[in-house]
Amino acid sequence: MIFSTLTFLLCLFGVANAHFRLLYPLPRGNFVADDEPKFCGGYTDVTTNRTTFPLSGGFFSIRAGHPNWTGGVLISTVANPNSFDNFTVNGVDQLVHPYAKQADTGTFCIPLNISAAGIAGATDGANVTIQVVFDGGDGNLYQCADLTLSANLTSPPSDVTCSNVTTTPTPTSAGTSPTGSTAGALGSAHGLSAVTALVLGLVGVAAASL
Ligand SMILES: [Cu+2]
């Protein structure tokens, strides 16, 4: 009985561990795996731990525990976004980064140019909230970050790590596109500059080879 309970708990942990983490900007609160399927990962109300975030030229970083995942980013300009409705306009999701697919697990650094998305109210000095939506096969998962947009800030602070460290399900040799992968989709959706491609690392290389 004890053994089976332990096995069950280990299974739960294993599954939960394979969700995703929002590494940057900092999420509303500490990661709670069981709450990640809920709105904002279980943190319903706006927080005071806002990140000053570039209006243009920002990025976000996640760690994906599931292969073959789809991710996108919603934005709300409401003062206390506490429902999915607050991330929609006229019933349509307000996307600041379109949904894109990625085959690999690992850590990803993905460009997030908020001003380029042309969201009304997402201007210099505005308090906004982004909600990262991730589907790795076990349902939609959510993490939110409360931000203050800054036009003066042209890139995230240098102490923020932005790198791609990925684990490809099937190893591929250098120079070939990963089989069955749309690795470039996340970056190329916004048109990669040479600099961005370098920052993107693996994702950028894949995009360049397309
Ligand atoms: Cu999961």
Give a verbal description of the structure.
It is a single chain. By secondary structure, the chain is of the alpha+beta class. It has a single domain, classed as Coagulation Factor XIII, Chain A, domain 1 (Distorted Sandwich). It is 16% helix and 32% strand. It has four helices and eleven strands. The chain has helices at 2-17, 185-188, 194-200, 202-208, and strands spanning 20-24, 51-54, 58-64, 69-76, 88-89, 92-93, 95-102, 105-112, 127-135, 140-150, 165-167. The strands form three sheets. Strands 2-10-9-4-7 form a five-stranded mixed β-sheet, with no helix packed on it. Strands 1-3-8-11 form a four-stranded antiparallel β-sheet. Helix 3 crosses helix 4. Residues 1-15 and 172-210 have low confidence and may be disordered. Residues 18-19, 66, 136, 138 line the site of copper (II) ion (CU).
Compute the average pLDDT.
Answer: 80
Strand order of the largest sheet: 2-10-9-4-7
* Small molecules (ligands, ions, cofactors) in the structure: copper (II) ion
CATH class value? Mainly Beta
Major sheet characteristics: 5 strands, mixed
Principal-axes geometry comes out as globular
Beta-strand share of residues: 25-35%
Number of strands: 11
Q: Could you spell the SSE succession in H and E letters?
A: HEEEEEEEEEEEHHH
Share of helix, binned: 10-25%
Structural class: alpha+beta
CATH architecture: Distorted Sandwich
How many domain modules? 1
Radius of gyration: 17 Å
Distance between the termini: 53 Å
**pLDDT < 50 runs, ≥5 residues:** 1-15, 172-210
Helix count, DSSP H or I runs of 4 or more residues: 4
The name CATH uses for the topology is Coagulation Factor XIII, Chain A, domain 1
Membrane topology: Lipid-anchor; GPI-anchor
Protein name: Copper acquisition factor BIM1-like domain-containing protein
Region (Disordered): 158-182
Biased composition (Low complexity): 166-182
